[in-house]
Structure formats: C-alpha cells, structure tokens
Write a structure and sequence with these properties.
- This protein is mainly alpha-helical.
- Helices cover about 65% and strands about 5% of the residues.
- The protein has seven helices and two strands; from the N terminus they run αααββαααα.
- β1 and β2 form a beta hairpin.
- α2 runs antiparallel to α4, α2 packs parallel to α5 and α4 packs across α5.
Length: about 150
C-alpha cells in the first residue's frame, strides 16, 4: 500500500488533516527561535569572544554584528511568503522584535540571579555588551528589542 492509495485517503476526515500554519504563528515561532539562538551564543561565550573584534573601531564589533544578523535573519525568515510587501515587512519587524525581546530577557535574568556558577561565560563584560554600555539594564534591554 502506498501513501497515495485512494482507500486510505478517504478514511481521513477534514479534522484529521494537518492544518496550515498561520502566518502570525510562524512569525512568533521564528522570532522565539532566533532569540533562543542569540541566548545560546551568549551562554557559550561566542558573543563575548566575537565582541573583541572590531568591524568599525569604536562603533560596531563583530559581537554586535552577530546580534544584528540574528535579528535580520529572523525577519527574513518570517517575511517569506506570497503576501503583499507591507504584510511581509510587518511580519519581519515583529519577528526581529520578538528575537530581541527574548534576548533582552538574558540581561534581566543576569542581574536578578547569578548564573555564573553554571554558565561561566555570563560575565559582567557580557552584560555590558548586551546592554550596549547603557546606564541601566532596562535601557540596554530596550535597545536590544528595538535593534
């Protein structure tokens, strides 16, 4: 028996068929996944290691460019589709903001709870990098979400 056998196809009801994923759900999932990737890169120490390399001295480091690429990648992945340009741009912006929001939870968690005993890469230098040397953690987290 093959999967395209008409006898098998008639047994399935409409409620049992796989429902197409909504565009909003796809956008949220892409944003959350990109944010988790950013947290992973920070937790293993790669972001701080890349932050030591300057792309534009005093302006942009490779660590910040990696964070930017993560958000842009989320936006591109979420914006794929056949809808109009406005809808795709909006989905891309939402996915990038969600990715930044998930990543912004890391500095908040780092200031509330000391995770350094488990993840030695979650250092004060990483906190400075993630908050863009802002005066408060809240300002840095807003820049992460907006970036």
């Amino acid at each position: 028996m093959s999967a395209t056998d008409p006898a098998i196809a008639t047994v399935l009801h409409d409620s049992e068929a796989a429902a197409p994923e909504s565009a909003f759900r796809h956008t949220v999932l892409v944003g959350v996944l990109a944010g988790i990737i950013g947290v992973y890169l920070a937790a293993i120490g790669l972001l701080l290691l890349l932050h030591e390399r300057a792309i534009i001295v005093g302006v942009l480091s490779l660590g910040h460019a990696t964070l930017l690429a993560t958000g842009i990648g989320a936006g591109i992945a979420a914006a794929r589709g056949h809808e109009g340009l406005g809808a795709r741009l909006l989905r891309g912006l939402i996915a990038g903001a969600i990715a930044g929001g998930v990543l912004a939870l890391l500095p908040l968690l780092m200031t509330a709870v000391s995770l350094r005993y488990m993840f030695i890469s979650l250092s004060p230098q990483l906190l400075q990098m993630l908050t863009f040397d802002a005066d408060t953690v809240g300002q840095g987290c807003l820049m992460l979400i907006a970036g």
